[in-house]
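B., you asked whether I could sanity-check this one before it goes into the benchmark set. Here's the sequence:
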Amino acid sequence: MTQFITVFTMVFLAELGDKTQLATMLFAADRSHGPLMVFIAAAVALCLSTAIAVFVGSAAGHYLERVPVKLFAGVGFIIIGAWTVFDHFRNMT
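And here's what the prediction gave me:
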């Protein structure tokens, strides 16, 4: 149960306010799309993309060591964050 709570919390918090949620809100705000259809389409899309991530991650876990993968992911996130901050300040001028 602890694993479920951990995964749920991390994914839920990561998805709040991201591009996917904003796009879903925009589709729901459009009167030509019914809210139920937007919910179903978004839920199926998120389930499919999550299934792909779980499949790829599980397969990679059989071939790769855990520590280098965590290190690579951490460094990757730091680089993306630094790039985003740099790009933001560069575009301010």
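One thing to flag: Residues 2-92 form one domain. Otherwise nothing jumped out at me.
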